[in-house]
Amino acid sequence: MARLDDLKNSPLFHDVPDEALQEALQVITERRYYAGQVILEQDAEGEALHLITSGVVRVSRISLGSRERVMGDVYAPGVIGETAVLGGGERSATVRAQTEVTTLMLYRTHFRQILRRHPQVLWNLSALLVRRVTFLNDELIAFGLNTEAALSHVFLSLYQQRLAAGVPNPEVLPLSTQDIMARISSSRETVSRVMRKLDAARMLTYTSTQVTLIDPDALEHVTLDEADVSAD
Amino acid sequence: MARLDDLKNSPLFHDVPDEALQEALQVITERRYYAGQVILEQDAEGEALHLITSGVVRVSRISLGSRERVMGDVYAPGVIGETAVLGGGERSATVRAQTEVTTLMLYRTHFRQILRRHPQVLWNLSALLVRRVTFLNDELIAFGLNTEAALSHVFLSLYQQRLAAGVPNPEVLPLSTQDIMARISSSRETVSRVMRKLDAARMLTYTSTQVTLIDPDALEHVTLDEADVSAD
């Protein structure tokens, strides 16, 4: 059964008892989205979470002045919407399909029931939240250092996510200059300057629509060095 | 019993069965720290977490070039060290006592046993992690907007924590200009300029060692407006 395999592949349902999987199968709904379609909307009630079973989504936040801040991309088999479902509040961001996307949708009430009945799912959720806290802390630190550190963090985390998702050419990141500006809240001039520098150091090459990492390991180390000597 | 009350006050042990509290009482150790003492050290193994029962700690990260980035303060009854204990990795930050501090220390192995046996503790931990993810997301957004938004986020979150902790004069924040620079990774010039602006708008007053919020509600709203019209 394809849905059962999809469930087992999700970090939320990894290594859980069959009983929990069977319960989840009763209440999940498969959803399909076209590229560009909104899956979750900022400021709407957080009534459901989605297990992404194929495709890529982009998480972003739009402020009143209509400036868009991209928070990151999530690849299958990632999870979206779980914090609003648990926290009980409104969604703080909009999630939009970047490609064709399929998900398994799980309503808040059903999810909470499964968590109460199956501590292993709750354990998986905690592990996922710990990884997210660690990631966000790393991002705050990188963004606070300088643009090199911020870009390196963005590129390497996207690369690692693409590797884990098993997509072809994980080192070719589908990021335009505009995407990068929206991701790190920097001006075109700053982004262009640092991209030229990383290109000259043979860390990466780039075009107006994508960034290709040549030496991810070096990118990681150079950034740490840069971060520590720069006064920014 | 004072320790039992301290446990019940901790967000981790809120509303848990007596059995879980009794188990925890068997394995916790009370620790005392003087102001300035290191409680958890960056890059050390994450072997234990602490429930803060009195006092205030500061979480910071020091990079090789010895630049210090302050990640935030935690007041009693906060929890520190739980992500390294769960994630199994090294600590990403140093935690230092700002005042005299007492904690209840819980080793990783004991904590994991309690989580496995008592899903309500795991539930509390998930709720705590969800709040932290939400907070870090808000911080990334505020820091990405402009210095006004960053300062407002820092001041308001500290104020709310002081309110919740029941400390006297919660609106008087013990932050020097140096502290603020280390918290938002900004230059003295930038911090001074924005502080003068917030002072002129009667949002706050400040000296070299503290910031006093005059109108927290207005601070929140002004910041949102600023954030949306400013080009940064």
TrEMBL record, chains A, B:
Q: What are the UniProt keywords, alphabetically?
A: DNA-binding, Transcription, Transcription regulation
Q: Which PROSITE patterns match?
A: CNMP_BINDING_2, CNMP_BINDING_3
| Protein name per the record | Crp/Fnr family transcriptional regulator
Supply one GO CC term from the record: cytosol
Any one Gene Ontology molecular-function term assigned to this protein's record: DNA binding
Looking at the record's lineage, which domain of life comes first?
Bacteria
- Tell me the organism: Deinococcus indicus
Pfam families with a match to the protein in the record: cNMP_binding, HTH_Crp_2
Record-annotated Cyclic nucleotide-binding domain positions: 12-132
* Alphabetical list of InterPro entries matching this protein: cNMP-bd_CS, cNMP-bd_dom, cNMP-bd_dom_sf, Env_Response_Regulators, HTH_CRP, RmlC-like_jellyroll, WH-like_DNA-bd_sf, WH_DNA-bd_sf
| Alphabetized Gene3D superfamilies for the sequence | Jelly Rolls, Winged helix-like DNA-binding domain superfamily/Winged helix DNA-binding domain
